[in-house]
Amino acid sequence: MMKKITKILALLLVLTLVFALVACQGGTSSKKDKDSKDDKSNSEDAGKKNDDEQPVAPTLGGKYTAVLDVQTLIDLASETGADSEQAEMVKQLLKGSKGVNLNMEFNADNTCSAEMDKDSMVALVDVMLENIPTVMPSIMGKSEEEFEAALTAQGMTMEDFTKAVAEQIDPETMFDTSEMNLQGTYRLDGDKLYITKDGEKEKTDAYWVVEVTANSMIVKEIIGEDNTAPEGAEKLLPWTFNKVG
């Protein structure tokens, strides 16, 4: 039975890789650069408008949080290299999760940061433990009665099994987010948000298309070869970041 527990731990490691992928792996967006003719046309149309017709754009600044859907994140990991069978098992174990929070902060000096919220990641372990009694039998290819009978044969109850799994998991170290965080600078030009990691040069042809309001920031598109967004990130769009501070 300990081998079964080890298998569960392996699945959680796959999950950890999902968050690492989303938080820090650079990639190429599948979105193509906007046509230059469209840009020119939009520019000419904007020039025809009177100042009174254009509302003052909200300032991007402060702390923002977006809730990323766990099931979608796992699908993304599966499409970009993770074992599809294990990914499906993780999805079953995490049914009902509230998602993972991605926090971003934009400062007045044009520095910015992004980090995966550790507490929301640790909460996934609780969801998994709650789902074990109903999900594990099917993962092991058994009915609930057969699975419980297998546990009984080894002198264990379902509660004992779940407790044994919990004792072997250390969420604090498993979800170490220190290597997932981003530090850099930002520049907002109209609806184009340029984010550059520390130590790198800004890519003028790579940006996020955003809609900024007084209380939120919505990421609508990822244009060009972005150095801050993961491969396949367009599948998560739109990202809605609510202002929290």
Q: Topology of this protein?
A:
Layout: H1 2-24, H2 36-48, E1 62-68, H3 70-79, H4 84-93, E2 100-106, E3 111-116, H5 118-139, H6 144-153, H7 158-167, H8 171-174, E4 182-189, E5 192-197, E6 207-212, E7 216-223, E8 239-243
Antiparallel strand pairs: 1-2, 1-8, 2-3, 3-4, 4-5, 5-6, 6-7, 7-8
Helix pairs in contact: 1-3, 1-4, 3-4, 5-6, 5-7
Structure description:
The chain is an alpha+beta fold and 245 residues long. It has one domain (2-243). 42% of the residues lie in helices and 22% in strands. It has an eight-stranded antiparallel beta barrel. A hairpin with a 4-residue loop joins strand 2 (100-106) and strand 3 (111-116). Mean pLDDT is 75; it is low at 1-7 and 16-56.
Overview in brief:
This protein has 245 residues and is α+β, with helices and mostly antiparallel strands. Helices cover 42% and strands 22% of the residues.
Major beta sheet, strand line-up: 1-2-3-4-5-6-7-8
- How would you describe the shape? elongated
Number of beta-strand segments: 8
Number of helices: 8
| Share of residues in strands | 15-25%
Total individual domains: 1
pLDDT under 50 segments (min length 5)? Answer: 1-7, 16-56
Average predicted confidence as pLDDT: 75
Helix content: 40-55%
**Largest sheet, if any?**
8 strands, antiparallel, barrel
Q: Could you say which structural class the secondary elements and strand pairing correspond to?
A: alpha+beta
List keywords for this structure.
alpha+beta
